[in-house]
Specification:
17 strands, single chain, five-stranded antiparallel sheet, alpha+beta
Length: about 625
């Protein structure tokens, strides 16, 4: 009756609370809550849109932009490298023609004919000097200037000094008056070399020089052959390549001297990376004077020259970069439009959805309030259908409350009947207690002890309907059973206990050890006249509890048949141990259960394996 009163009071309190809330108040609550829900969900959708649409879109666009720019720069660099190599090959061909022409000149006028050699080495008249200048002028018809520097022998009939020069023949008074390039040219033993030297007017010019040796004594130096203004030929090669504004072409020799340049840009070799200083070809991008440039470098070993293109990156990538930026701006505008469209959808979806969610939060079973007529405000789309269906569903739920209320009353009455049914074992316990005390008062302590153990067996076995009990209670149940059996078979067997007391606080299924002890007594040691031994062990192995019931019975055991009984393959006997095995597996799974093995020296060992189950 007490339970009925509490339940009814609770229901009346709910009804009273519902009655205090008007329909208008509920609508205000719904309006306030739906606004908050709409904002929260709207922000979540916007954040998700930014993270999963805009973010990846921008990242992919940026990666594509970077990869495309890098690919274009790499392809442009390779193309410019091929162009500079081809241009350098043209320059080398022009230099080779100059070198070959000097070889022909020396062969024709110094080495092939003794008279010619004598002519150049013994010019003693003005006519001979004029003839020599005429020959040199004829060889200079391609725009270059040929000049021969001869040592002054002091036998010329005309005035001469270190600065005297009529056309292309120059006499030097002594080695101290040699040009600055003469000593290095002398060390090259007749091989030609390219360098930057001063012309007769004092202006720097690209000059190809050779030593003139005595054909009869190659260790004797006669003079020098110098072909100046070679840049006249080379400039034609460099100008043939059309370069953009602020670009430049630069030709350096092996002494890192700038021989020639074309274009408006300036350059120092220090702008090149270390890898391109060591006679190697390549290209790279670098920044100079707040501008990015492409450097394409070609090195040729014939004359040890280095040709370099320096091109502004803007002139190469300007249009492509502008085009990519235009695409990114257009994509950004597109994303903004998509975001506005998403917000428009949110306004038409989140608002009705938030209202519906608020209804679900406010609504409680059995709480009557007026939602209004759903058909008057419902929309024709999916949300309108959902909203109308929800209102009708709540109405049907409210109608079913009374029926549910009646069913709960019947359920409580059934629980009360169950409580009444528990009075019968309680009466049995009280009766056994009365017998126990009567036996003690009569002086029959053995009977009293057996009655007490029987009462304990019943109490623990029933355990108020619980299936899991502490291990300490299960052991107490086994001890009570063993005491009863020792009274029945006095002196036939002894019992030994090996219990890990730390495990007694954990839980286990009830009455699973007693059937094993019963089998060990009745089938193993009950008739051994004091020689029977029974062991009950409880120990922990990792995260498992192992319970062992061991006896030294002498009767042979068919272990294979026993295992088949436990597994259920033989079901006409062994109900107790099969029940123990099945209950353990129902609680813990197939990895746990009951197992048997033979004991060394005779007898049988039954092992129960269960996981550690903490007590509540």
């Amino acid at each position: 009756m007490k339970f009925h009163i509490k339940w009814d009071i609770s229901r009346r309190s709910i009804s009273a609370e519902c009655s205090n809330v008007s329909s208008e108040s509920l609508r205000l609550i719904i309006a306030k809550r739906s606004g908050g829900i709409k904002l929260k969900l709207q922000y979540k959708v916007i954040v998700a849109f930014c993270l999963f649409i805009i973010g990846p879109f921008l990242i992919v666009g940026w990666i594509s932009f970077s990869r495309t720019s890098a690919t274009i720069k790499d392809e442009v660099g390779k193309t410019m490298l091929q162009l500079v190599k081809q241009n350098h090959a043209t320059v080398e061909n022009s230099l080779s023609s100059v070198r070959d022409k000097t070889v022909t000149f020396l062969d024709n006028h110094f080495f092939s004919n003794p008279k010619q050699f004598a002519f150049w080495t013994h010019i003693e008249t003005i006519n001979a000097l004029s003839e020599a200048d005429t020959i040199l002028d004829r060889w200079s018809s391609d725009g270059t200037e040929y000049a021969i520097y001869m040592a002054n022998r002091g036998n010329q009939p005309f005035p001469i000094n270190a600065l005297y020069k009529k056309q292309g023949l120059i006499y030097l008074d002594s080695s101290s008056t040699y040009p600055e390039w003469a000593l290095q040219t002398q060390e090259e033993k007749g091989a030609g070399s390219l360098r930057l030297a001063k012309s007769s007017s004092g202006q720097p010019t690209v000059t190809f020089t050779r030593s003139i040796l005595n054909p009869e004594k190659y260790d004797e130096l006669i003079g020098f052959l110098a072909v100046s203004k070679v840049e006249v030929l080379l400039t034609k090669n460099l100008v043939s390549v059309q370069l953009p504004d602020q670009a430049g072409v630069f030709l350096f020799d092996n002494r890192d001297e700038l021989l020639l340049k074309s274009g408006s840009a300036d350059m120092e070799l220090s702008e090149l990376p270390e890898a391109l200083h060591n006679k190697s070809n390549g290209y790279y991008y670098s920044e100079s004077n707040n501008h990015k440039y492409l450097y394409a470098v070609s090195y040729e070993f014939n004359f040890n020259t280095r040709l370099i293109y320096k091109i502004p990156l803007e002139s190469i990538m300007g249009k492509q970069t502008s085009f990519q930026q235009l695409i990114m701006v257009m994509l950004a505008i597109y994303l903004v439009l998509v975001l506005l469209f998403v917000l428009y959808l949110l306004r038409n979806i989140i608002k009705p959805l938030a209202r519906l969610v608020t209804f679900t939060r406010v609504y409680e079973l059995g709480r009557p309030f007026d939602f209004g007529d759903p058909s008057s405000r419902s929309r024709s789309d999916e949300f309108g259908v959902l909203y109308t269906a929800f209102i009708r569903m709540t109405g049907r739920l409210n109608e079913s409350i009374e029926e549910n209320y009646g069913m709960k009353i019947k359920q409580k009455e059934q629980e009360l009947n169950t409580l009444h049914s528990q009075i019968t074992p309680h009466l049995l316990y009280n009766t056994l207690d009365s017998i126990y005390w009567y036996a003690l008062e009569s002086g029959n302590h053995d009977v009293g002890g057996m009655v007490k153990d029987l009462s304990k067996l019943l109490r623990i076995g029933l355990s108020k309907g619980k299936s899991m009990i502490p291990i300490s209670e299960e052991l107490e149940h086994v001890r009570a059973y063993i005491r009863l059996q020792m009274k029945r078979y006095p002196g036939n067997f002894e019992v030994f206990w090996d219990i890990d007391e730390d495990l007694e606080v954990f839980k286990m299924p009830k009455v699973i050890i007693q059937p094993l002890v019963e089998n060990a007594i009745f089938h193993g040691i009950q008739s051994m006249d004091g020689e029977g031994h029974l062991w009950v062990r409880l120990k922990r192995v990792d995260d498992e509890i192992h319970i062992l019931v061991e006896d030294n019975g002498f009767i042979p055991v068919n272990l294979e048949k026993l295992i088949m009984i436990v597994s259920g393959e033989i079901d006409d006997k062994g109900y107790g141990i099969r029940n123990v095995h099945q209950r353990i597996q129902l609680h813990y799974g197939d990895s746990y259960g009951l197992g048997y093995r033979l004991r060394d020296g005779g007898g049988l060992i039954a092992t129960i394996t269960i996981p550690i189950h903490p007590s509540e």
